[in-house]
Amino acid sequence: MSVILVEDLVNYLKSNQPIASIDLGSKNIGIAISDSGRRFANPRPLLVRKKISQTASDLLFFANKENIAAFVIGMPFNMDGSEGPRAQSTRAFVRNISDIINIPFVFWDERLSTVSANRILIDMDISRKKRSKKVDSMSASLILQEVLDRIHMLQT
């Protein structure tokens, strides 16, 4: 499936089908999923990043198990809005797995999502060791919540 805009996603969605988000790291992949009403984002356990075929298989299993309508993937733009090597790597990742996972992908600006996720976890008094295991999924959750809020705004 292809990459679509969030505005196009609104027309694609079926009722009660959740959306998931991905915060792509070099070692781990943060995952979050919406509730069926697409109001709230909930972090899920990390996926360990493996070879592209295995990672795609893991994401496909997750998508089928949870009946996912679409994946939102955090796009790591530079602070000036340009695309650097990490953004190019994210585009290549989606291009490679979209042959295996036949649901739409939506890119979403993830600038400062990891900083925000870390602040939330610090405010929750989570230890540094535990934070490192939760920050990617918390970041995915923040990214997804922004998209859910945007979808809600477009539907009203």
TrEMBL record:
Show the Pfam families listed in the entry.
Answer: RuvX
Cell location:
Cytoplasm
User: Which top EC class applies here?
Assistant: hydrolase
Q: Which GO terms describe its biological process?
A: rRNA 5'-end processing
Domain YqgF/RNase H-like, residue spans? 17-117
Q: Which residues form a coiled coil?
A: none
How is this protein annotated for GO cellular component?
cytosol
Q: Which InterPro entries match?
A: RNaseH-like_sf, YqgF, YqgF/RNaseH-like_dom, YqgF/RNaseH-like_dom_sf
Tell me the superkingdom of the source. Bacteria
Q: Name one GO molecular function term.
A: nuclease activity
Question: What SUPFAM superfamilies does the database record attribute to this sequence?
Answer: Ribonuclease H-like
Listed EC numbers: 3.1.-.-
Give UniProt keywords alphabetically: Cytoplasm, Hydrolase, Nuclease, Ribosome biogenesis
The record's section on CDD domains has: YqgF
Q: Which family does it belong to?
A: Belongs to the YqgF HJR family.
Q: Which PANTHER family match?
A: POLYNUCLEOTIDYL TRANSFERASE, RIBONUCLEASE H-LIKE SUPERFAMILY PROTEIN (PTHR33317)
Q: Which NCBIfam families match?
A: RNAse_H_YqgF
Please explain the role this protein plays, according to its UniProt record.
Could be a nuclease involved in processing of the 5'-end of pre-16S rRNA.
**Protein name as catalogued:** Putative pre-16S rRNA nuclease
